[in-house]
Amino acid sequence: MKILKVVFENLASLVGKHEIDFVNEFGTEGIFAIVGDTGTGKTTILDAICLALYGQTPRLKMNKGQDGTENEIMSRRTGNCLADVIFETNNGEQFFCHWEQQRARKRADGNFQPVKHTISERIAEQQWREITTKTRETVAVIIEKTGMSFENFTRSILLAQNEFAKLLESSPAERANILEQITGTDIYSKISVKVFERSKEIKNDVDKLNDKLKNVEILDDEKIAVIKTEITNLQKKADEYKKKVIVISEGLKYREECEKANNEKAKLEPELQKLEQNLLIVRKAESDTLTTYNELVKIRDGELETINKVRKIDNEITGIKKDLANAEKRCNEIANNKTSVEKSIIGLKKNLSNLLGDEPFDTLKRNHETTQSDINTLAAGKELSVWRNEKETAVESKRLWESILAAFRKREELLLKKTDCEKNINEVQTKLSNAIEVLKQLKRDKEVKDNIVAQIQKRRDGYLAIASLEEHRKQLADGIACPCCGSTEHPFAKGNVPSVGSLDEELKDAKKEKKIVDDNYNSINLEISKFESEHKQSNKNLSGLNEQIANENQKIEAAPQIITNVDSVHAALAASETALKQIDDMIVKIETLQKREGVQNKQITSVQKFQTEIELNTKQLNQLELDLCEHENERMNYTNQLQVVQNERIQLFGDKKLNEYERKLQTDVESALKEHNAKKEEKNYMENNYKQVMQQLD
Q1: Cα distances (angstroms) measured from residue 69 to each of 62, 83, 422
Q2: Which of 3, 308, 482, 601 is at a distance of 20 to 30 A from 13, taking alpha carbons?
Q3: What letters, b where the CB count within 10 A reaches 16 and e where it falls short, cover 505-526?
Q4: Residue 41 φ/ψ region, left for φ over 0, alpha for ψ in the -120 to 50 degree band, beta for the rest
Q5: C-alpha dihedral over 474, 477, 480, 486, to 10 degrees?
């Protein structure tokens, strides 16, 4: 099949309607690649093709009812989806498949409605004839037109992601069926079946002819000549019998005439005489055939003893031939084994020569003994494991002195840091004390400035209160008590209200000075907090340095000997390094000698193995030669026995085939008996006729 066009809408991640026209958009191109990033909807295009054809996909689930509990085909937040495919079959027919599913009222939250799946065939350029609108029938029609079920289609034409293994894991029969449907080569399978059936018929005919041919006995020229002579004689006798039959037939005809014409009785007597003569001839022929039969039976019975002797000889010849064949087979096996062993000995000697080279085996053994002596001398009676343990001890000693030296150096560094830290603590403490004194002075200045600002602010507030009573002051008169304070004198009633302008300037300056004092106070406070934090951290650092110095002192005190200064540590470290190097050199020399000893051991073992194998193969070769000589003698004995028995058979029976000769004797006897019985029946028949004629004459 060939996909011509694909149309789909709202499938998986591809929302909206999409159309791919493989004919008009891509022309005659036959191969298409679907490329894109992960999740862009490449596989959804293949799902659309599968959905339009079979109403299902190999990777996405669809709900079977209308409860909407399971559906991965329709795009989310959509109310419908569809898939259309136009495809062409191998015979040129074009079909249009339509698959569609909707939600209720095409709402995104509606229930799923039943699926619509139809198929139509093209009857004209733009005309389609609907074949069926039933889902099951649609799938059945597609399977019929494409020749592929959904399983075959998804295993071969459209392989879903990670599903290619299913085609490979199918059984050979299933895979062959799928590939035939894809490539259209099923016609060759049918031709193959027809060819096989025709070949089987011809083979059966040939087998029947061969069976018949087996029953045909091929005769030599002498036997053919004898048979031809017998056929000629029998043909002559047959001609004579035919003449006699004719005579008898005439006699019978004559008897019938006698019965019809009773009045011509006298005329029948000559015929009766003729009948008597024929009867005498038949009786003589019957007697002759009986004589022939008896003679052939006598000949056959006389040959039975010879036949039994020959059969016994033939059986003996068969047994001797079988024994001779077994003896020859055994001789060949022994000869082959002998050749194999000889080749094996040559190979072993060659390997031994390659292994030893120009060095004799005794020299190799002496070198091996020398190597062992060198090892014992060098190791001073100690095993290599002991030297390695001593090396480990020396390594540990070296590491210990290195750690002590590092502890010395570390302690010096820590002591310097401790001095710096103590100096820093003293400096910070001095700064902190000075800052505290400055802070106390600033605190006093701050209190003074706060009081000045408060007083100015109070005076200003009073002036503002006086100014706010201007309307009330206008109503005051001298001598009349003030409703507010009760005074009868009113100094501010005549416009002598003090101004707040000068107080504002004074308040502003006072606040500015107060801010300067406050800023300095806060700054000193921050410095004090900083100094306190730094002092605390320095004390903490000093405490940590003291702990580290104590740890390094413990490491130094753990030395295996009393340490007075760093020079003594250097000296002890140098001594441990020298001892380690000596032990290491000793181990290297011992290992080198042991490797040499291992190689020599391997060579000696290999040489001894080759020598043992050569010795065993040589013994086996000698035994095989004895066995071969014995079986050759046995074969000669069987050959001589066969020659003697074959000569005896030739003298007794020649080169004739026993079964054929026996069958010929039996055939001759049966033929003679058959001929005798025929003549006897003929005689009885003529005697009955003669009696009937005589009765009529009487």
Answers
A1: 9, 22, 78
A2: 3
A3: eebeebbeebeebbebbeebee
A4: left
A5: 40
Amino acid (one-letter) located at 39: G
CB 527 within 8 A of CB 519: no
Strand order in the sheet with 128-132: 14-21, 2-11, 80-88, 94-102, 116-122, 128-132
Strand partners, 116: 100
Task: In whole angstroms, give the CA distance from residue 101 to residue 135.
Answer: 12
Model-level pTM? Answer: 0.30
Q: Are 351 and 610 within 8 A, CB to CB?
A: yes
Contacts of 407 (CB under 8 A, 6+ apart): 552, 555, 556
pLDDT of residue 344: 83
Residue environment code for 560-571, b if the CB has 16+ CB neighbours within 10 A, otherwise e: eeebeeeeebee
Q: Other CB atoms closer than 10 Å to residue 44's CB: what's the count?
A: 23
Helix (H) or strand (E) holding 120: strand 116-122
What's the angle, vertex CA 426, arms to CA 425 and CA 430, rounded to 5?
115
Distances (CA, A) of 340 to 44, 335, 354, 624, 669: 69, 9, 21, 11, 61
Q: Which pLDDT tens digit goes with each residue over 176-233? A: 665 665 555 555 566 677 777 877 888 787 777 777 666 666 666 777 777 778 778 8
Residue 2 belongs to what H/E stretch? strand 2-11
Length of the chain: 698
Tokens, residue 494: 């005549």
Q: How many CB atoms lie within 10 A of CB 86?
A: 21
Q: How far is CA 455 from CA 139, 450, 465, 645, in A?
A: 104, 9, 15, 164
